[in-house]
């Protein structure tokens, strides 16, 4: 597995209100979103916000740059062609780094490296 980026950001009220007004949103809206990309990725941080429609054909993401202090709401399809499969990638199309099924937020050491006692 590969580590996921640890950056996160609070949603501004304009972003939240825009998403809350979308009809047919599929998920509870977050107030705070974490980056979904692989650790040490190059471009902006990107976190999933909401998808719309029963087939989740439209997905909204927040892209942000914590150095410049800028953020943008973007609409990009999922990376995967078939989002129902278990190992489907839940990252935006064209994302840098590994696919979501290869990422973890927890660093797990190989069993022979774990110190006991
Ligand atoms: Zn990131
Ligand atoms: Zn992917």
Give the helix proportion (percent range).
Answer: under 10%
Low-confidence stretches: none
What number of structural domains do the residues give?
A: 1
Approximate strand percentage: 25-35%
The major beta sheet can be summarized as: 3 strands, antiparallel
Number of helices: 1
Distance between the termini: 26 Å
Using only C-alpha atoms, the radius of gyration works out to 16 Å
Overall pLDDT metric? 87
Total E-strand runs:
7
Give the strand order, joined by hyphens, for the main sheet. Answer: 4-5-6
Structural category = mainly beta
Give the SSE order as H and E letters: EEHEEEEE
Task: Spell out which ligands are present.
Answer: zinc ion
- Shape category: globular
How would you describe the overall organization of this protein?
The protein is mainly beta. It has one domain. 7% of the residues lie in helices and 27% in strands. The chain contains 1 helix and 7 strands. The chain has one helix at residues 13-20, and strands spanning 2-3, 8-10, 32-34, 45-52, 58-65, 70-75, 103-104. A 3-stranded antiparallel beta sheet has the order 4-5-6, with no helix packed on it. Strands 1-7 form a two-stranded parallel sheet. β5 and β6 form a beta hairpin. The longest helix is centred in the first third of the chain and has 8 residues, at 13-20. The protein is globular. The two termini are 26 Å apart. The structure holds zinc ion (2 copies).
Please outline the helices and strands.
Elements lengths: L1 E2 L4 E3 L2 H8 L11 E3 L10 E8 L5 E8 L4 E6 L27 E2 L13
Parallel strand pairs: 1-7
Antiparallel strand pairs: 2-3, 4-5, 5-6
One zinc ion binds next to loops.
């Amino acid at each position: 597995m590969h580590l996921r980026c640890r950056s996160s950001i609070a949603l501004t009220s304009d972003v939240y209100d825009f998403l809350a007004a979308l009809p047919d949103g599929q998920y509870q809206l977050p107030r705070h979103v974490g980056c979904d990309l692989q650790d040490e990725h190059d471009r902006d941080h990107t976190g999933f916000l909401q998808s719309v429609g029963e087939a989740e054909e439209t997905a909204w993401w927040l892209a942000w740059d914590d150095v410049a202090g800028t953020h943008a709401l973007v609409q990009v399809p999922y990376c995967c062609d078939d989002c129902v499969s278990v190992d489907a990638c839940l990252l935006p199309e064209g994302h840098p780094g590994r696919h979501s099924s290869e990422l973890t937020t927890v660093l797990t050491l190989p069993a022979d490296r774990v110190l006991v006692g």
